[in-house]
Amino acid sequence: MSLGRGNGMPDKNKFTMIPIKRTDVFQTIIQHITNFLDSKQIKPGERLPSERELASMLNVSRTSVRQALKVLESSGRIETRVGSGTFLAEPPAVSLSDTHSLERLIEGGVTKEFLRNLIVARTSIERAIFEDYAWRANKSGINQLRELIELNREKFSCQDCDDDDSALDLSFEKKVARLGGNPILINMQEQLHHLWVLAWRQYGFTPEQTEVLHEEHLAILDALAAKNSARVADLIVQHVDKEID
């Protein structure tokens, strides 16, 4: 089968998706979809085929497709709009590194030491992003963040969603970075988010329960609304710096 352009419909003259038979299904799904995105058959802002359509084309489960899409979303390649679908994201204004070079860091496996180093790196970037935005937060941005938190709560409370997806959702942090508007920090965050999701999935453990993350997001939002940068910094550090079992 093949993927059409924008409307999610098959087109025999377009990019061909070959059903997956290898054992490394998760990574292979990511590669297939990445190849499709790189083929330039859809433009930024256009919709990808649905999870169900992709699963049928690749002969894999919807859960595997959903997990692969989550990784691509964390790296900034795609964006999910609740109730509308998944869309090709606008390319970042600045590209600082190759995502594939980061992936090579975990080719030999993910250890507790690697995760601790990853936590340190992500904590530094998120703190810089959130402290910077705390000074410029306005009513419009706060309302957008509050709406996103509520949408995520509804999204991940549905029966069809699994805990792994919700516990590794980074859309709140990504939205704050976008509102802050620093292209260098945005790009660095995207790279770390991509590695974060891949590493925790490979480790086979998620750092926190969905309900806890939801409450932490609300507390961070309240601190942002109050423009309390010191409180924001403390909360985001606590939010990212989790115990590793």
UniProtKB/TrEMBL annotation:
What is the superkingdom listed in this entry's lineage? Bacteria
InterPro entries from the entry? Answer: GntR_C (IPR011711), TF_FadR/GntR_C (IPR008920), Tscrpt_reg_HTH_GntR (IPR000524), WH-like_DNA-bd_sf (IPR036388), WH_DNA-bd_sf (IPR036390)
Tell me which Gene3D superfamilies the record gives. GntR ligand-binding domain-like (1.20.120.530), Winged helix-like DNA-binding domain superfamily/Winged helix DNA-binding domain (1.10.10.10)
Q: Which GO terms describe its molecular function?
A: DNA binding; DNA-binding transcription factor activity
Q: Which SMART domains match?
A: FCD (SM00895), HTH_GNTR (SM00345)
The yes or no answer to whether the keyword DNA repair is present is no
Q: Which CDD domains match?
A: WHTH_GntR
- HTH gntR-type domain residues: 23-91
Which terms are listed as keywords in the entry?
DNA-binding, Transcription, Transcription regulation
In terms of PANTHER family, this protein maps to: TRANSCRIPTIONAL REGULATOR, GNTR FAMILY, UXU OPERON TRANSCRIPTIONAL REGULATOR
> What is this protein's record name?
HTH gntR-type domain-containing protein
Task: Give the organism the record lists.
Answer: Citrobacter amalonaticus
